[in-house]
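Schema walk-through. Below, the input block comes first and the output block second. Nothing else is stored per chain. Lengths vary across the set, and this one has 428 residues.
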Amino acid sequence: MSAATSGSSTSRQRLQATLNHRQPDRVCVDFGATPVTGIHVSAVTRLRQAVLGQQNDFRVKVTEPYQMLGELDDELRAALGIDVIGIPGRKSLFGTVPANWKPFTMNDGTQVLVSGDFHVTKDEAGETLVYPEGDTSAPPSGRMPAGGYFFDAVIRQEPIDEDRLDPEDNVEEFGLLSEDDLAYYRSMRDWLQQRADCGAMLVVPGAAFGDIALVPATFLKHPKGIRDVEEWYVSTVVRQGYVRTVFERQCEIAERNIATLIDLFGDSIDAAMITGTDFGTQRGPFISPTAYRDLFQPFHKRVNALIHARSSWKTFIHSCGSVYQLIPDFIEAGFDILNPVQCSAAEMDPVRLKKEYGQDVVFWGGGVDTQQTISFGTPQQVYDEVRQRIDIFNQDGGFVFNSIHNIQGPTPTENMLAMFRAVRDSAG
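--- output ---
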């Protein structure tokens, strides 16, 4: 199945119909367009071998080294019927740049490629340590357990002096796009133009207010400010003035960069990932609607309003967990797309979500449960769940098929194949 030419629509037409709540010719599919809709490099390697055959000298590239996500290249996307491609930021969460690829062996033995400035060491416990910008003279910023599949952030929190806390320290990583950044985005615009039949997602830099994956600043050699995960969450309650000042400065910079990117990419982009800040847990919201409206929504409104005023792009919010109570506030903030649609969480029943919000928000994800079904179920269970979710969510458009967050490394190949078979069969 070709991603660009299957059925009566191109992939981009399919995505645009979906984003505008029109019934597409078949369900639109994304894997790999964002850092929260991908597949682990080990799983991509096995999936590629199963679909395209063994290619002894081929190694999948690690496109996002924090989660060790693998590239879904043009050939594999076409074979799987994937419709959406993505433009990530120039640097990874470890500050590395995707160039000068070199071999690397995962803990499970998978042979992959990593960027040339991705440098690691092993400690006495067999854990893999990774360094910001590949600088092994700096303290490590990530740790992969022995036998693990991806990295955890190493917290490098300096002692906090309440009297000397400066919000500018938590704005260190935000700045106007550099000449290197602009050259990168121009090259990616050319890359998009060569794939004009595909739907396109831009990962907007610097607009993820309070994203806990970014707070430890694994890409900085010596981060300052509040960088401990627990301390940051505490700060959203007891240091709200500090956090609000950080968000205000961050938003000012993000708005200028977004305006630049709109001018650069124009209508070649269909959707923009704004934030990956999680507001839900398995059992309920992580934050009250009142707290969201007070601390986060004003900045989300500003970013979304700018994008909607100056472009045709639709805006994407990623939040794991039970966010049913927050969906009206996300809509009021101007978000068009909700991901990952964690149907296993409290109050996230797919039928209820589609009935109540299917005309107001595009559901991007929710196609199969990664906590249980695709990871531990049988191929038939995977197939049945995927068909059911497509039947529910894809009625009258407004649904981009993806799993609930990234597919993990040990996921059985047979289950991934069952998922894509169910997607194909749903087209009739």
